[in-house]
Amino acid sequence: MTFRAPVHDLALALKVVGHPELLAKAFPDLDDATVDAVLAGAAAFADNELAPLNRQGDLRGATYANGAVTAPPGFAAAYNAFAEQGWNSLAADQAHGGQGLSKALELAVFEMVQAANMAFGLCPMLTQAAIEALHRHGTERQKRLVLPKLVSGEWTGAMCLTEPQAGSDLAALASIARPDGKGGYLLSGQKIFITWGDHDAAENIAHLVIARTPDAPPGVKGISLFLTNKFQVKDDGTLGPRNSFRPVSIEHKLGIHGSPTCVMLYEDAEAELVGELGQGLPHMFVMMNAARLHVGVQGVAIAERAFQQALAFSQERKQGRALWDKEGAIWGHPDVRRTLVLSKAKIEAARAICLLTGVLADQTHDPAAKARQELLTPIAKAWSTDVGVEVASAGLQVHGGMGFIEETGAAQHYRDARILPIYEGTNGIQSLDLVGRKVRLDGGAAMRALCADMQVTIQELNANPELAGVGSRLDAGAAALERATEWLLQVSADASLAAATPYLRLAGDVIGGWLLGRQALAGAGSDDPWLRSKATLAQVYASQVLTLACGLAEGLPEALDHLATVDPAALSR
Amino acid sequence: MTFRAPVHDLALALKVVGHPELLAKAFPDLDDATVDAVLAGAAAFADNELAPLNRQGDLRGATYANGAVTAPPGFAAAYNAFAEQGWNSLAADQAHGGQGLSKALELAVFEMVQAANMAFGLCPMLTQAAIEALHRHGTERQKRLVLPKLVSGEWTGAMCLTEPQAGSDLAALASIARPDGKGGYLLSGQKIFITWGDHDAAENIAHLVIARTPDAPPGVKGISLFLTNKFQVKDDGTLGPRNSFRPVSIEHKLGIHGSPTCVMLYEDAEAELVGELGQGLPHMFVMMNAARLHVGVQGVAIAERAFQQALAFSQERKQGRALWDKEGAIWGHPDVRRTLVLSKAKIEAARAICLLTGVLADQTHDPAAKARQELLTPIAKAWSTDVGVEVASAGLQVHGGMGFIEETGAAQHYRDARILPIYEGTNGIQSLDLVGRKVRLDGGAAMRALCADMQVTIQELNANPELAGVGSRLDAGAAALERATEWLLQVSADASLAAATPYLRLAGDVIGGWLLGRQALAGAGSDDPWLRSKATLAQVYASQVLTLACGLAEGLPEALDHLATVDPAALSR
After folding, report:
1. Among A124, A277, B41, B98, whose CB has the most other CB atoms within 10 angstroms?
2. Is the pLDDT of residue B15 over 90?
3. Lowest-confidence range among A358-367, A481-490, B187-196, B240-249?
4. Which residue among A4, A315, A551 places its CB closest to the CB of B548?
């Protein structure tokens, strides 16, 4: 099964759904022709260079031997081509060798990369996070000697947070960085789940590691961020000796076999402070927020890939008499078609949420945009990755028995997708972030503003005879989201906790419906079947997803009461 | 992680939810003590003999070499112990060596077997289906020489339907059985996806195969059912020469690695007709209906196993400050607890649906019971297996990053569970069966009768102050199901097709809520925390699942209109 990057859908989402006026404001020189050219170039690379390596990456996987990791066959060459063609440096600052383009455009490019080969895409994705952290908080030396190498892609980045006892709770971490008496630090400890923590595809790897300093206070305030490089970096930028850290094993995982997940051991590794002492977690959140949005895009990507494969299969596979296909292609069976069209609608809703968040991230001087970006980030991450798992599963199902056979390839997407709701903050953590920091902390201002903006779209939909049904369902959905938001603002922090996951789902369902509505309006009245199909996607989504919003809002307030006193022994007697 | 069979939950479901008066009617001698003793014995076998083999079965898998399949290490010995202890013969007719017990009790036993080791459980599950077919349609010779060997478990059975071009559409099959001139047939063709089609755990394997006869009409009416044995059976019951069929490969699958999925080649294999010529599909449906209910039970089973593992992990794993646990066990985090309690509620709803269907299957002379059994069978299969996938995924999620590591074991459940919505008729096929044959064909009588019975429970719930909230939500859910049913009965067959899957989900959601309500009533006022927890499960389910019923019913009627004209090219431009 070949993959074909959805350049037209991406361009439409960027230009129409993602607030074109905002994109134009941040990047006045970014015309449609440039956007199209960048997307087309990236699509060619994704389709031709990365997608063909995906299955081999799964079968062969990254390997570990003698303290070193080897990337799967073909990955190192593809990575070097990726960097040489400039795909790593699209949105980085021109001062550090980047191309200074829109983050939203970069996200669109990365969606194609992740769809073509998610295990591969993780490597530059984490480099992007490291670029973001050094750009914001790096020292002058780090910006001069390390950042340009990460921007060019000659070196890659790794994000080193988790320890066995410290996953979602980073306050529990134990790695320690002792001052070396020369202005630097000696870093010791063990980190787990370090994606692309070691490999042979680039000449150096910059590790951004959180650790404690010896005299630091306990808890999160004692945590600082450090940079330590696989090969030390001399003052002239050339590489010095190997630093004293190494991978000690890689994990045997359910999916993304092509991406090495390392256990890293640091033994007095030479390290430098990044940013301020004790500010490790806030600095790391800079990386994590960028990474969270990228993970949301991975959800869209794996869903798109799984969908394309299932759609192609549904047109080839013939079984029985199909209502809508004389030759019996299963695409002609209403139940199969419903599955596929609903999958596509959810993909486009998730893509729109992610790209809108990216466009907002481009508005660096607009506080309202920043507030909305922060509001949408946990939704982009969690809702889109849930869609990734759901659509990968639906795609497998469309294949029938063949879907369960590994050779078919549908199962790989189902396995690969499953990491997405977990890493970069589980989806449960995202929902707590949404409810606590993004809704309750600002008194609901950002969410209320978003719901108010939906009214504009609702009125436009209502005025269009073909789309009025979508308008009324979106109206009911937005009202449910508003009710749930007001409830959240009135209750105690404790009461909000148990409602967090269904609240995030409700928010994603409604916001996704809003953006599909905008897209449908852009296609209304067009002669182009592709543009017209955007109305169908919004209609199917409205009837199958937005109809559930009222019930979701109704059920929210009760969760806590019933749960508080459950005895676990009573559940497994 | 050890597994502990949920004997108390199973006994409660059998005695309370599954209409105890019906069970007593069919089996007057089956007292509670017998039920408890059978469940306890099976639980010990499942926990101690089968569960420990589950991981090895996944890692090592069944293997194929030189035209023969070898079961994973330990499976053959476990199978022999299973048969010797009588677990294979619980519900079979005493005339054929069975114990003549309730099918519902047998299902409860099989749930424990499937939870302990689903790859193993598939083998006796298919033997049960073969027993059912020969019991109903076998010749006198087949009943004398083959059936007792299947009942005792000395031989196993295989169900041979699918061919590469004939999956959901069995009318397309091409295997052929030519009369041999001596009253028998010579069977030739290739069958795929034959579960336990060959192995070394029993001395003989009875294949029930559908095929055409040379002069048969095209389509389903030309299909007959045949029995062909791996080793031919002489008139004195001893084994003759090897028959001319063999496995040519086994599949490399996403999960259930311990269960060999064979490609079988039949080359003029000696075969006997089962039942009547041209009645192959109706006869096969006897096997398939029994198997479909068993697959629903597999959904409950894999969910129970995944849930137990996640619940245990949630009590051991400590992260951060937990609202409900001083030491930070993640079970004390409301979002995690919500996930687990909702999982358990769905498991118990699915278990109740399956066991109720089993109890109804025991009422062999009651037409109303038979109609309800037939109505519930596609729901038991599809809804319970969707729960299986969902809960296995939720269980993996509770483990965080560890869930994605294969050593943890949660990923195996996620992989194993994924076959369940596919085999024995995909869940899409189940929904078409429900809508077409089970609801529309009888003018909605069986579904209306079921909804009427719910009113009794609703009134009992409403009369109980603690459970009145469940009663009102169930009332709204039942009304939504009734509305959806009336809509289904009014529209064309075509219009019903696109609504089939959401209708089945709605029906399962509401019927599951009904049975949880019955269970909650049985526990109301009890001093026993386990029995009281049944109220909590019903309350959480009502607030998180039944609240969606109205929206599901509202969205049903629209699916077809929007889907009919979708151009697949517009979805992948």
Report:
1. A124
2. no
3. A358-367
4. A551
Do B190 and B87 reside in the same domain of the chain? no
The span from the CA of B536 to the CA of B534, in Å, is 5
Q: Are residues B37 and B117 in the same domain?
A: yes
> Cβ atoms within 10 A of the Cβ of A277, count?
15
Say if residue B17 is in the same domain as residue B139: yes
Residue A409 in domain:
no
CB contact under 8 A, A550 and B551: yes
| Best to test chain A binding among B534, B547, B571 (most A CBs inside 10 Å) | B571
Residues of A in contact with B311 (CB under 8 A): 568, 571-572
ipTM for the whole complex: 0.97
**Chain B contact present for A449, CB below 8 A:** no
Tell me, yes or no, if A405 comes closer than 8 A to chain B by beta carbon: yes
Give the range of the structural domain holding residue A105, as residue numbers without chain letter.
7-148
- From chain A residues 339-358, the ones with a CB under 8 A of any chain B CB are 339-341, 344
How confident is the model over A28-68, as pLDDT tens digits? 888 889 999 999 999 999 999 999 999 999 999 999 999 99
The CATH number of residue B103's host domain is 1.10.540.10
* pLDDT (mean) for A340-360: 97
Query: Do A97 and A174 fall within a single domain?
Result: no
Question: Which of B101, B121, B148 is a domain's end point?
Answer: B148
Q: Judge if B143 and B237 occupy the same domain.
A: no
Residue A501 clears pLDDT 70, i.e. is over it: yes
- In a domain? residue A60: yes
- State yes or no: pLDDT of B313 exceeds 80: yes
pLDDT digits (tens, 9 = 90+) for B169-208: 888 999 999 999 999 999 999 999 999 999 999 999 999 9
User: Is B422–A404 a contact, with Cβ atoms under 8 angstroms apart?
Assistant: yes
Q: Is A424 a catalytic residue?
A: yes
- Per-residue pLDDT, averaged over A477-487, amounts to 98
Q: Is the pTM of this model over 0.95?
A: yes
B456 and B541 share a domain? Answer: yes
Using pLDDT thresholds of 50, 70 and 90, give the confidence band for residue B278.
very high
Annotated catalytic residue within A267, A424, A460, A486: A424
Does B459 fall in a domain?
A: yes
B192 φ, ψ (degrees, to nearest 5) = -120, 165
Establish how many alpha carbons lie within 13 A of residue A197's alpha carbon, considering only the half-sphere containing its beta carbon: 29
What CATH number did the domain enclosing A268 receive? 2.40.110.20
**pLDDT tens column, A84-101:** 999 999 999 999 999 999
Best mutation site among A263, A338, A526 for testing chain B: the one with the most B CBs within 10 Å? A338
* Number of Cβ within a 10 Å radius of residue B267: 13
- Residue A458, classed as helix, strand or coil, is helix
What distance in Å separates the CA atoms of residue B359 and residue B23, rounded to the nearest whole number? Answer: 6
Q: How far is CA A97 from CA A148, B58, B65, in A?
A: 6, 49, 58
Supply the pLDDT for residue B29.
84
Residues of A in contact with B572 (CB under 8 A): 4, 6, 308, 311-312
* Within a domain: A377: no
In this structure, the answer to whether residues A20 and A98 fall within a common structural domain is: yes
Q: Are residues A136 and A163 in the same domain?
A: no
With tokens 């041979």, the residue in question is B160
Q: Find where tokens 């040379």 sit.
A: B214
Q: Which residues have C-beta within 8 Å of that of residue B151, sequence separation ≥ 6? A: B88, B89, B92, B93, B96, B97, B98, B131
Tally of domains in chain B: 3
Which of A278, A309, A324 is the last residue in one of the domains?
A: A278
Burial class (CB in 10 A: 0-12, 13-18, 19+), A323: middle
Query: What does pLDDT average to over chain A?
Result: 95
Q: Do B167 and A539 touch (CB under 8 A)?
A: no
